[in-house]
Amino acid sequence: MTDIAKTEALIRADKWRMDCLAVVKTLSLPDWLLVAGFVRNLIWDHLHGKTKATPLNDVDVAFFDPSDLAPAMEQDIESILRSMRPEVCWQVRNQARMHLRNGHPPYRNTTDAISYYPEQATCVGVRLSAPNEVEVVAPLGLEHNWKLSIAPNPKANYANSVFMARMKSKRWLETWPALEVADHYGI
C-alpha cells in the first residue's frame, strides 16, 4: 500500500476529520485543502499507536483565490465555518496572498503554496473531491510523515531558528517521542 493510500485510509476512518472535510466542501472554495497538522498529526498519532487523536490547535483551511486578496474574506469564511461547527477552531488563509507575508515568489495554486511550509512533513493537505472521495495532496511526498522524520523544508528557505521555534512551541517531541529530527540540529 502506498503512503497516499495509507493516508487516505486513515482520513476515511476518522469520522471527525471526514466531517470537517464535508463541512468545508459545502463552501465550494476554489482549490481548497485542509492542511498541515490536520493530516500530519493523524499519521504521527497512528504510528505512535494512539487510540485518541492529539487535539489540534486549529484546523487550517487553505484555498486559492487571486480575485479577492482581502483578509476580511478569510474572516467571513471563518465565521461561516464557526456557525456550522462552532467546536472547531478554524483558521482560513487565501494562499494567493500568503507569499507576501512569507517572502516567497507568488504561489501558483494551493499545492504550490503548501510546498513552501516550514517543515517537509507539514507540506500536506487533503480535500473531498467527491462525496467521501478523499484526495491527498503532498507536493513533497509523504515519506517524512510515515518515517516519523521531521526536518526543515529546504525549498521554503526559512531560518533554522523558525524550524526550532516551531518544533519547541508545538511540543512535537513531547507529543510524538519517536520522531527523528534532522541530525544537524543536535536534538
Summarize the structure.
The protein has 187 residues and is an alpha/beta fold. It has one domain (3-185).
Structural class: alpha/beta
Compressed to H and E, one letter per element, the order equals HHEHEHEHHEEHEHHE
Number of strands: 7
Reported for the largest beta sheet, the result is: 5 strands, mixed
Approximately how much beta-strand content do the residues carry? Answer: 5-15%
Helix content: 40-55%
Strand order of the largest sheet: 3-2-1-4-5
Q: What is the count of distinct domains?
A: 1
Give the number of helices.
9
Q: Indicate the low-confidence ranges by residue numbers.
A: none
What's the shape? globular
The Rg value, from CA coordinates, equals 16 Å
**Termini separation:** 32 Å
Mean pLDDT: 93
Overall description:
This protein has 187 residues and is α/β, with parallel strands linked by helices. It has one domain. 42% of the residues lie in helices and 15% in strands. It has 9 helices and 7 strands. It has helices spanning 3-13, 15-25, 37-47, 71-84, 95-102, 110-114, 143-146, 160-169, 172-175; strands spanning 33-35, 59-63, 90-94, 125-130, 133-137, 149-150, 180-181. The strands form 2 sheets. It has a 5-stranded mixed sheet. A two-stranded parallel sheet has the order 6-7. The longest helix is centred in the middle third of the chain and has 14 residues, at 71-84. The protein is globular. The model has no long low-confidence stretch (mean pLDDT 93).
